[in-house]
Amino acid sequence: MRTRPVLIYDGDCAFCTSSVRFAERHIRPRCEITPWQFAELDSFGATRERAEYELLWVTPSGAIHGGAQAVAKLLLSAGRGWAVPGALLTLPPLRQLAHGVYRLIANNRERMPGGTPGCALPPDRRPQI
User: In sequence order, what are the residues at sequence separation of 6 or more whose Cβ sits closer than 8 angstroms to the Cβ of residue 41?
Assistant: First the structure.
């Protein structure tokens, strides 16, 4: 049984990795962090398809939150001033807005700061970073 939440991200995506490293240094969420490529996704109740599509936050009880709600959970876990925007991201209509912004960024991650053209490729065709 896990005692801490787990953040699962795309370790082959430079933008995703840069974002997670930023969160580790500045936000300091209270969770384990692992790329999906090294995670036993079945043990988390997650699929490769979902992990390729969005950031995942898996609670110790096994609940999975994806995309913008995973970001909200990350912010909430950090406490301090980060909990306020995290809480706001869970409330309608900000929840829906956050989902749209998350999808826009995720679908264009190769164009984001720290992104590479490889981020636009399907995971099985990306160069190893």
Answer: 8, 47, 48, 51
Pair 32, 20: CB distance under 8 Å: no
Is the bond into 93 cis (omega within 30 degrees of 0)?
yes
- For 34-60, give one letter per residue: b (16+ CB within 10 A) or e: bbbbebebeebebeeebbeebbbbbee
Element (H, E) at 102: helix 94-107
What is the tens place of the pLDDT at every residue in 45-89? 999 999 999 999 999 999 999 999 999 999 999 999 999 999 999
> Nearest Cα to 34, choosing from 62, 4, 68, 61?
4
What is the pTM (predicted TM-score) of this model? 0.88
How many Å from the N-terminal Cα to the C-terminal Cα in the chain?
A: 32
